[in-house]
Amino acid sequence: xxxxxxxxxxxxxxxxxxxxxxxxxxxxxxxxxxxxxxxxxxxxxxxxxxxxxxxxxxxxxxxxxxxxxxxxxxxxxxxxxxxxxxxxxxxxxxxxxxxxxxxxxxxx
Amino acid sequence: xxxxxxxxxxxxxxxxxxxxxxxxxxxxxxxxxxxxxxxxxxxxxxxxxxxxxxxxxxxxxxxxxxxxxxxxxxxxxxxxxxxxxxxxxxxxxxxxxxxxxxxxxxxxxxxxxxxxxxxxxxxxxxxxxxxxxxxxxxxxxxxxxxxxxxxxxxxxxxxxxxxxxxxxxxxxxxxxxxxxxxxxxxxxxxxxxxxxxxxxxxxxxxxxxxxxxxxxxxxxxxxxxxxxxxxxxxxxxxxxxxxxxxxxxxxxxxxxxxxxxxxxxxxxxxxxxxxxxxxxxxxxxxxxxxxxxxxxxxxxxxxxxxxxxxxxxxxxxxxxxxxxxxxxxxxxxxxxxxxxxxxxxxxxxxxxxxxxxxxxxxxxxxxxxxxxxxxxxxxxxxxxxxxxxxxxxxxxxxxxxxxxxxxxxxxxxxxxxxxxxxxxxxxxxxxxxxxxxxxxxxxxxxxxxxxxxxxxxxxxxxxxxxxxxxxxxxxxxxxxxxxxxxxxxxxxxxxxxxxxxxxxxxxxxxxxxxxxxxxxxxxxxxxxxxxxxxxxxxxxxxxxxxxxxxxxxxxxxxxxxxxxxxxxxxxxxxxxxxxxxxxxxxxxxxxxxxxxxxxxxxxxxxxxxxxxxxxxxxxxxxxxxxxxxxxxxxxxxxxxxxxxxxxxxxxxxxxxxxxxxxxxxxxxxxxxxxxxxxxxxxxxxxxxxxxxxxxxxxxxxxxxxxxxxxxxxxxxxxxxxxxx
Lengths: 108, 724
Fold this sequence. Notes:
Shape of chain A: globular
Largest sheet of chain B: 6 strands, mixed
Number of strands of chain A: 7
Helix content of chain A: 10-25%
Number of helices of chain A: 3
Strand content of chain A: 25-35%
Radius of gyration of chain A: 13 Å
Largest sheet of chain A: 7 strands, antiparallel
CATH architecture of chain A: Roll
CATH topology of the domain at 4-173 in chain B: Rossmann fold
Structural class of chain A: alpha+beta
CATH class of chain A: Mainly Beta
Shape of chain B: elongated
Strand content of chain B: 5-15%
Low-confidence stretches of chain A: 1-32
Low-confidence stretches of chain B: 29-37, 641-650
Number of strands of chain B: 9
CATH superfamily of the domain at 4-173 in chain B: P-loop containing nucleotide triphosphate hydrolases
Helix content of chain B: 55-70%
Structural class of chain B: alpha/beta
Number of domains of chain A: 1
Mean pLDDT of chain B: 82
CATH architecture of the domain at 4-173 in chain B: 3-Layer(aba) Sandwich
Oligomer: heterodimer
Mean pLDDT of chain A: 67
Distance between the termini of chain A: 20 Å
């Protein structure tokens, strides 16, 4: 129940745009195989951000950095599992474990 | 001629500061680290009849008040209304960079977009249709390469046209971003209310205020509440309604929806044939390949240590020769004055106050310059951000943030920084407690001003292992600072840590010009400090050490003693010279002890004997509160006045090594005390300013001095006990 477990806080999530259907994995409360915090995602993989937990400020700040639900990112293998190096749109962003565990991703 | 104000806005690492340097030629710092330009920087631009004051705004990702940089940038745009804002974009990362552009458009500032790093984008196989982008944004877009100053003339021509009002503002219908029906409806209602009441009119556009309230921007909400409490409550109510609605129907926050639509708007523009990729979009670039090695779990930290240690080796081995040249010049100057002037207070002041004071400090310029050059290379290449990244795990343990490392490194984490910019660098920290802990502990680091004292004492007493000792002291200062931070975070600054988020800029080859500017700028600041504050303090201390002079009776007694010696021994005999010198030495020592500084120093001996310091060291350490470099010059003054050794060329270090009051153990105790006692008053003032209260500044003085005294006393007493 990864979705429930990490959905304690209020979170932000992508809304399906026109002509798009809501991705099943990005809904709260549903278990979706593969939706997991970035801290537990495999290195070197392309992932899609499903959700960002951690309150209003966190969500908006991540969005300014380009990390928001629907965005594809690549997890560059970090030095250890708790800190993540994420590549998106040609830039590299490093996230501490506190930030990374709030980002829920699924395989792209 | 009227000067217009020109602001540079953009994401961190987009090349803002590089463009600023290219436009103004100003000597100022360019870093490769997010948030290095916290201060507002200004420079003049002249070309033909076009004059402008260029303001380099801090790098920001958005205009919502999440960090102080964003607040600074936004306040500047809203309050000072620059005639033109140049929004500099990293062409290789357009999508995220345009996120800020969207908000600048919403703020309705007169915009000119500079598309920087076109060369990098081209290397990455990107083709950007600039005319199309310009048409979609409704503002001029100019391609530039700030590093090599390419495209600046065209850019400034567009700026000139924009400033003269020759360009039509962008079509509002075209650049207005729709945020979905729910939010748009709310915005419409709120905008109407704001327009009708004239709320904050002239400062922000009405719709922008509405968007920021819906985005839950606390700063702006407070501003609105202060301006019109009643309307503020109504607007907030509207925002809450839409937030609730979005939470119920989509289970999301309004700012997430807003961000989503902004990116939708950007993607919509970019998709229309603006960018074409010639290569695979997702291939690994060189920078990423380098990162695979440099931030590797095992190799990364080892390489980092190797890099830091090699900085010491380079700095100390290459600086040795120039340091001796500078010392020789000042020695020669002292000699010239000694021969040319008649004895008296003026000669004493010039030699003991001015030449010894300034010369002692300037003698270390080559060393400090090399150190700054190494730091500039690390910063400009982008490696320093990786150091912060790798350090995050360690910093978290001590209750700090990975970004704290910048403050620590600037303060002297790599020896040779300065706590003043270090304290300023702590502004990038958002959590007040982590920031306060950083502010209070960075002065423990090995700042550039402590280096002369370290070099002096280590050179005099531990010369064989100079680099090892310097490196050891730097590592030890890290340990002390981190442990102190942990203790502070567990006691006076308790609280949960904030998440670590930082952009790692791509590796870039530092430009030669950039390195020169950064090295020179920092070195010049050091010299300026030496030239002004230190000269004044050196003279003040000379006065404190000279006045009040000995009483006439005592003076007469010394004169009489000398006359007796002169009478007893043949003129020119060795014995006579030796005895005269001995008397003169005693007279000098008595005079110094009699002076104001001497009295304070002697009084403090009652306490400082515990750590092995005599009154001269006490005077020097007192002077160090004004600026740490003064410790060296004061020791110099104290020793050249109290001791008329004819070997004027002998360096202060050799003098100390010969002195009975000094031993390697005393030197170690003094080194430890000097490294960790109260920060210099400039730093203290900065801490007070940054922390927002003098309480923390005084706390900083008190706790660090207490700690330093306990540490040095412990070392001295244990050392004595062990028979050193």
